Amino acid sequence: MKAVFLYNFTRFIDWPSHSFSTNDAPFVIGIIGKDPLTPYLEEAVAGEKIGMHPILIKHFHEAYEAVNCHILYIGYTDADKVKEVLEQLSGKSVLTVNEATNFPRWGGMVRFFMENNKIRIEINADAAKSAQLTISSKLLNVSEIY
Prior knowledge:
Elements: H1 2-12, E1 13-14, E2 27-33, H2 38-45, E3 49-50, E4 53-60, E5 71-75, H3 79-89, E6 95-98, E7 110-115, E8 118-123, H4 125-130, E9 134-135, H5 137-141, E10 144-145
Parallel strand pairs: 2-4, 2-5, 5-6, 6-7, 8-10
Antiparallel strand pairs: 1-9, 3-4, 7-8
């Protein structure tokens, strides 16, 4: 389900045009750290495009490699590692996603959490706005806002 959420974020969030090097440059969904999502994510995005942008899934070993992706799932649980990634992406138009309870407090944008056996999301709208990302009111209405 988390993989489907990541894909669906592309429908409810707008990235600035300067996030793409060309009109048909790939829309990159990145993963750093522990990766439980790739097989499901590849299935969810197979053959899909965001406008003219084909979706590409990339794995990163270092945070600086991810500065040009559009969505980054941070699979670290260690607070220092998560904060290091967020610091590297500061000022970039990268939607950051993690599951740590304090993720929005650290400056992360979207946190997955479980509530009544359902996946829910918490959004740090200020962090997204600072990254020049525009989140649809439809997504904000079904989310908890930090």
